Structure formats: structure tokens, C-alpha cells
Fold:
Amino acid sequence: MFNVGDCVVYPMHGAGVIESIEEKEILGALKKYYVMKLPLGEMKVLIPIDNIAQVGLRGIIEKDEVPQVIVILKGDQPEMSTNWNRRYRNHLEKIKSGDIYEVAEVVRNLMLRDREKGLSTGESKMLDTARQILISELILVQETESTEITSVLDDIFEQVPK
Structure:
């Protein structure tokens, strides 16, 4: 159970802060919801409290875990399938997991692939989504602005040879 003010990650949406806990009637059923505000885009998301385990809601990582995320981002790209569909499904599963390390792998893989061969429209959109998810959590962990985190990511990938 989370409380108002807690920083949490909602897979496929990113990290945010629980602003309130509200009861709402939706489709005739009265349920309690976390109201989470995302740091990017000023969006709010309602998360049903009774199924937080199924959706994978979790607390954000600790500050001392950030270097491991950076190591993953700086790592070499593993051998990936040449089949676009297989690659896409593999990356989508990693994003859906909500695990920051797996999301960082997706960002790294797609950034490196983009530099080498370019991305399809689907993979390009997936990269944007994965970057936003990663950035949203790092903003809260580092207690900083998105421009600073974006700059760090850009610096990492500018050092990669083309």
C-alpha cells in the first residue's frame, strides 16, 4: 500500500507522485484509486488500488541504484534478432515489466540501432516511450529537471561511435 506523496512507477506510463487517494464510481462500481501525477506532461493517472499488484505498481529505485542504470545505458548492444516483429515484442515485454534496468536496456538497444541502421516508425515510437519512462523515474530519483536527465542521456549516446 502506498501513501500520498510516495513516488511510484506505473509500467507503460512512467514514474510519478501519488497526489491523492480518491473513491470514484466508474461503470457503476465504487472503487479507491491512487491519483498519480506524472512529472512529464503534467498528466494525471488513476490507478485502481485493488489491482496494483497485477499492474506492477512499485516504488522508485534508490539513488544508489542510478549508477547501475548508467552502466546499462553505456553497455554494448547485445545480439538482437534481425526480425523486426520479434525485436519489437521483446522490447515491449521489457517495457511492460516496469523494471528500470530492462527499460534502460530498451533505450540503449534502440538508440544504438537508430545510430547504426535507423528505426522503423514503430521502433521510433517505442524509443520515445521508453525514454519518457526512464526519464520520469530518474527525475524523481535524482530530484532534478527533465532537461538535466535528457542531457545526461544525450551525452551517453554522443560518445558512442557512429
